[in-house]
Amino acid sequence: MAKLSKDRLIFGVLLIVLIALGEIILAHFKLATWPAFMVMIFFFEAHMDMKKAPNILVGGLFGIANLIIIKIFLEAAAPSLGLELAKLLYVLVFVYAIVALGEVVPVLFNNYTFMYFLVAAVAAKAPDPNVFSWMGVEVVGGALFIAGILGIVKILESLAKKKSIKAQ
User: Which residues, including other chains, have CB under 8 Å from residue 160's CB and lie 6 or more apart?
Assistant: First the structure.
């Protein structure tokens, strides 16, 4: 059976403080929290690898931006194809672009792009969707969450060094 780790407990406390601050600040400005929290989740899923941060942030931004692009596409294509067929065509081309261009332009065409597009499309069904606000929260809030997580790691490393020095 695994034992509780003091470092993990401290990390958890500092993380919930970070999450609470993010929630309070975004709620104060009446901004959606999900775009920034998705960045945080994906960053953890990527094992806090900073090399993945641009793919998460840019891919997420592009995924949300596709709500604007699909709207323009639907206005042009729906009259001739019908709304459902036009939506299907867009999604098929979008997914194909992710697969085909994922290795060529991975910062833009990646799984994060698709996931953000999907979640943003669901969120857009709520009253008063604000795609541009979501884009800002995703980039700025998400980057701040990544910085905060890395800051927590630095704090824990500093505590470990002090503990190591004391033990000597």
Answer: 7
pLDDT confidence of residue 21: 97
For 136-145, the pLDDT digits (tens) are 999 999 999 9
Q: Tell me the pTM.
A: 0.91
The residue written with tokens 């090399």 in the block is 51
Burial class (CB in 10 A: 0-12, 13-18, 19+), 9: exposed
Give DSSP secondary structure letters for 27-69.
Answer: HHTT--SHHHHHHHHHHHHTTT-GGGHHHHHHHHHHHHHHHHH
DSSP string, 66-133: HHHHHHHHHHHHHHHH-HHHHHHHHHHHHHHHHHHHTTTSTTTSSHHHHHHHHHHHHHTTSSS--HHH
Residue ranges covered by each domain of the chain: 35-147
Q: Is 136 within 8 Å of 64 (Cβ atoms)?
A: no
Q: What would the pLDDT profile of 16-46 be if each residue is shown by its tens digit?
A: 999 999 999 999 999 999 999 999 999 999 9
